[in-house]
Amino acid sequence: MQPDQAWQEVKHKVVGNIMDILALLALIVSVVVFGYTAWRDRVMDRRMKQVEAEQQRAQSEATQRRSKTSAPYFLPSQAFVSNVYDRGENGQPIVWLSMNQNILSAQNQEIKKEAPKGTAVILVLDNHGKGARKIKLSGDIPDAEIRQEPPLGSANDLIFLRYPYSPSQHGQVQRISLSFESEDGYDLTHVYETRHGIFEFHRVEPK
Fold this sequence. Notes:
Order of helices and strands: HEEEEEEEEEEE
Shape: rod-shaped
Number of strands: 11
């Protein structure tokens, strides 16, 4: 074999080996790049989900704060109540007298169990929050209403929950959903809890 031919063969093998090494390096680099890109995408995806979760949590907390600060907050009134003014279905004036014992107040904290079915229960409330419009009630007590005394006689603008008494439900825990429009224009829903025929009324959602 001629020296030039031998050198060409060696040169060819060296170049071939270098090309193989370069191809292997290119493959390794591509694998590393692919792995890094996949890892980076997973990290970014996880971070984006964390950011979205934090934004949703912040939005939920802001909504809940607004829901509380922009809303009425009803509690049983501790005021002395002698009578409550109301209007009947046809708009006629009604005066509920405390001696009739259908008024739930600080003086009378429970309706007599012998009260006839359908007796109007009047639970006197205080509003420790904001005003509200378009109040609608739903839940465990059919025909329950939040009312306010009309400008009659010596009325004191008392606020009260009115609902028909059901002897079979006496003392049962019942929930009332109160939907309304806040003074600043938000449509909100709060949930209150009472016991049928008992002087209890407190908000359970939002707490």
